[in-house]
Amino acid sequence: MKYSYIKPRKKSILTPEIRLVLAFFSMTIFMLLSTYGFLMYKDKMFIKDKLAIENEKIRLQQNTKDIESKILHIEKQMNTSTKVFTKNSVLRDSLKNLFDLVPQRITLTEAKLLHNGLTLYGITPNKDVYNFMLQAPLRSIFHQTYTSFYPAKDGWLRFVSTNYMDDETDKILEDTDSISPKEEKKDE
Amino acid sequence: MFAKLKNLLYTQIYINIVAGNKQTTIYVEEISFNGSVQSTEEKFETSQSKKINAFILKNTKKSPIHYITILDSSISQGATPTCSSTEMTQFCDMGIVKHICYNKQWGYYTSKLDILEFQNKYKKIGLDFIFSPFLMLVNFFKEKVEKELALFILVGVDSITLSVYDHSKLLFAEQLDMQNQNEFQEELGMVDEALPTEDLTLDDDIGIDLETIDASDELDSLDDFDTIENLDTFDEMDEFSEDDSEEIGEVIVPNLADTESSFGEDYHRFSLIQSAINKFYKDDRFSSDFIEQVFIADSIGMGTELKKFLEEEMFLNVFIRKIDLCLELCELAKVEK
Prior knowledge:
A: Gyrase A, domain 2; rod-shaped
């Protein structure tokens, strides 16, 4: 029914008091929401940073393990090298001593260093010279010594002396030879 | 949803203004969310506009959901038996009036200037509704309007709203002004200072010498009202004044004046109504029919003289029902909001 000559004024439920209260509450809610949003954002950022740090930590832990294993390997290699160096030094000294042992009357034509032994080829004026002047020191060094003679054209005797030793050095050398290939594989 | 929220939050306040020339009645009804109703009514002198505004503002501050309604009391209002704008031009100047159609059957109008005047008068408090007394009358006698051919009259202090309906179809309507009451009383010899004692025939041999009354321009019907000398009411009034004088002695003078005034008002009303009915019968613009019944909505608590005049002089069946203009205005506002 629209039978009035004029239209009614719009009735707003928002009185000045209610507007003030609504403004206050809306500002409070806005501040609470913005604070909540800020905290949510910061929380998200913290979680993100935490994950990144955890990943970095895992990566560094892995790197540390790798470095530790490398250090271990290097230490082993260093030990091995030290042993080899020592062995070589010993061997060099032994060879030097061996060559020092060879008398002037016996001539070595060939020397073969075996894995655990030494094979000497040479010429001796006779068996006695060899037996007294060379075989004796060889026997003091090696555990087993085998010698064979055969005559040369000029009346001298050619000899082949095969010497073996069973000492710990050989075992160490065997161990080193057997370990090294595996470690190389690991490095690869 | 929003309306329910509003009702829950606030009390609805209906402020209804019925402004007369001398007195303005303001009826305030407060309806709370649980449906409980509180009402107050105050009467002010119309000239005390500051007091009126203060009273209304005091009530409007109680709730933002308030409706201020006023009853249109302007003289330039009326009703038309048609809603067609072309046909309405023979009843009013469509350029200067605001017209509202009722149920696509008939319409009522008032001057745009009067609406502006109302809005300007109450601009401090603002107005929400301005209702026509024709609308109030048809709502008040709704069941009669739908079923009868009758004359319906709303009697106010300063005006009379008159309309003729034939089974909801408006045949005739007119707003009658009581403003010229003084002139009428002068003519009847009822205003003291204007009453030469030789002209006033209201003495022990009471009777109005109608020969001394000139027909005014507005009261053309008085020419047709040639049987007024035979009105028994004057005799009754004579008897009434005599009885009173016996009982209360000399104090009768003001009472007599009141009775005379009431009598004069009723007679004035009667003459206005009679002239309007004559206009209805004679004016070619209205499709006239014979009126047998009159339904009067009495808002002022008038006497029985008017009823007697109408029954005895015009042979009409008169039914009077009391009306509270403020309450009816409030009901209209509730439906309209």
